[in-house]
From TrEMBL:
It is found in: Mitochondrion inner membrane. Keywords: Electron transport, Membrane, Mitochondrion, Mitochondrion inner membrane, NAD, Respiratory chain, Translocase, Transmembrane, Transmembrane helix, Transport, Ubiquinone. Core subunit of the mitochondrial membrane respiratory chain NADH dehydrogenase (Complex I) that is believed to belong to the minimal assembly required for catalysis. Complex I functions in the transfer of electrons from NADH to the respiratory chain. The immediate electron acceptor for the enzyme is believed to be ubiquinone. Core subunit of the mitochondrial membrane respiratory chain NADH dehydrogenase (Complex I) which catalyzes electron transfer from NADH through the respiratory chain, using ubiquinone as an electron acceptor. Essential for the catalytic activity and assembly of complex I. It catalyses: a ubiquinone + NADH + 5 H(+)(in) = a ubiquinol + NAD(+) + 4 H(+)(out). Its main location: mitochondrion. This is NADH-ubiquinone oxidoreductase chain 2. The chain crosses the membrane at residues 62-82, 88-107, 145-164, 234-261, 267-289, 309-330. Its EC number is 7.1.1.2. GO terms for molecular function: NADH dehydrogenase (ubiquinone) activity.
Length: 332
C-alpha cells in the first residue's frame, strides 16, 4: 500500500499510533489528541507534489477533519462552562469525520482526488478511530435516535448517489457511505459487532481496490480493456461480496446486523438497509456486466498486470463462508 519511502513509513507508523491512542484513551481530550496525530500523519501520505488533484484532496480533507476536531473541543467547553450534555455534539463531530450522511458531501470528491492505495486507507483505516469513539458516544436515547436517522440517511444517499456515476472511485465512495449505514447499526449494537463488520468490510473493499489498482482502472470505459478472464471472474466475486450477496463473505456481517436489529424490532430500519443494498447491487452488476460483455482489442496492448498470488488469496477469501458455513451463526 505504501512504497519504501522512509518518510511515508514514519507517517504510517504515527498514523497507527494516533488510532491506538484515540481508541484506547479514557478521556475525550486524549482521544482528540489521537485523532489529531492521525490527521497530521495522513495528510502527507495522500498529498503529492506531482498531482495537483491529490494536493487539493489533502487540503479538503484537512479542513473537514479540522472542523470535526473543533466541534469536539467545543463540546468539552459546553460541558465545563455551560453545563450542557455534550454527547450529541460529540456524535455530530464524529459523524462528520466518518463521512456519514447528511455530512457526507466531502467524501466522494476526496476519494476522486487520491490514488487507489490511499482510497483503501480512506475507506477503512481512517474510519477506525471515529467509529469506535462514536460507539462510546451513544449513551442516551437522543444519541441512539440520531444514529438511527444518520444510518438510514447514509443508506439512501450511498445507494442513490452511486447510480449516475461512471467514475469507479466515486462509485466506491458512495458504496462506502452505504456501508456506513451498516457500520452505524453495528456501533449501536456492540463494539465487538463493529469490529467484526469493519474488519470484514476492510478485507472485501481492499480486494476490490487492489484488483482495480493492478489494472489501473478508473472509469467505466476502461473495464473493456481487461483481457484476462481470471481478472474478470475475480471482479465478479469481489464486487458481489462487497454488495453483501450470499454466499460471499460480505453477506456475513450484514446477516449478523440484521439478526440483532430484528431482535430489537427495528423493522423499518432493516427495510431501509436492505432496500439500499439492492440498489448498490444494481450498480455493482452494471460494472460486472460491462467488464464481462465488452471487449476492446485496441486496448489490449495496455500495461495490464496479471493478478498476483496475494491478490488471488485476498479475492478468494470472499468465498470463505462456503468453506466455513457455521461462521454465520457466530454470536456476540
Amino acid at each position: 500500500m505504501l512504497n519504501s519511502n522512509p518518510s511515508r513509513i514514519a507517517f504510517s507508523l504515527s498514523l497507527t499510533l494516533g488510532i491506538i491512542i484515540a481508541v484506547s484513551s479514557n478521556s475525550w481530550f486524549t482521544s482528540w489528541l489521537g485523532l489529531e496525530l492521525n490527521l497530521l500523519s495522513f495528510i502527507p501520505i495522500i498529498s503529492s507534489s506531482f498531482n495537483s488533484y491529490s494536493s487539493e484532496a489533502a487540503l479538503k480533507y484537512f479542513l473537514i477533519q479540522a472542523l470535526g476536531s473543533a466541534a469536539l473541543l467545543i463540546s468539552a467547553t459546553s460541558m465545563s462552562v455551560f453545563l450542557i450534555n455534550p454527547s450529541l455534539l460529540i456524535l455530530s463531530a464524529l459523524l462528520l469525520k466518518t463521512g456519514a450522511a447528511p455530512v457526507h458531501f466531502w467524501f466522494p470528491p476526496i476519494m476522486q482526488g487520491v490514488s487507489w492505495p490511499q482510497c483503501i486507507m480512506l475507506m477503512t483505516v481512517q474510519k477506525i478511530a471515529p467509529l469506535f469513539l462514536l460507539s462510546y458516544a451513544i449513551v442516551s436515547p437522543i444519541t441512539s435516535a440520531t444514529t438511527i436517522v444518520c444510518s438510514a440517511a447514509s443508506a439512501l444517499v450511498g445507494a442513490i448517489g452511486g447510480l449516475n456515476q461512471t467514475l469507479l472511485r466515486k462509485i466506491l465512495a458512495y458504496s462506502s457511505i452505504n456501508h456506513m449505514a451498516w457500520l452505524l447499526g453495528a456501533a449501536l449494537i456492540s463494539s465487538n459487532m463493529l469490529f467484526t463488520y469493519l474488519f470484514i468490510y476492510s478485507v472485501v473493499s481492499s480486494s476490490v481496490v487492489l484488483l482495480l489498482n493492478s489494472n489501473q482502472i478508473f472509469h467505466f470505459k476502461q473495464l473493456s480493456s481487461i483481457p484476462d478472464t481470471k481478472t474478470k471472474t475475480l471482479s465478479f466475486m469481489v464486487l458481489f461480496s462487497l454488495g453483501g450477496l450470499p454466499p460471499f463473505l460480505g453477506f456475513i456481517p450484514k446477516l449478523l446486523v440484521i439478526n440483532f436489529l430484528s431482535s430489537m424490532s427495528e423493522l423499518l430500519w432493516i427495510f431501509i438497509l436492505l432496500s439500499s443494498s439492492l440498489i448498490t447491487l444494481f450498480y455493482y452488476t452494471r460494472i460486472i456486466l460491462t467488464a464481462l460483455t465488452l471487449s476492446s482489442p485496441k486496448l489490449k496492448q495496455l500495461l495490464t498486470e496479471t493478478p498476483s498470488l496475494p491478490l488471488y488469496i485476498l479475492s478468494f477469501i470472499n468465498f470463505s463462508p462456503l468453506l466455513f458455513p457455521l461462521m454465520s451463526f457466530y454470536q456476540f
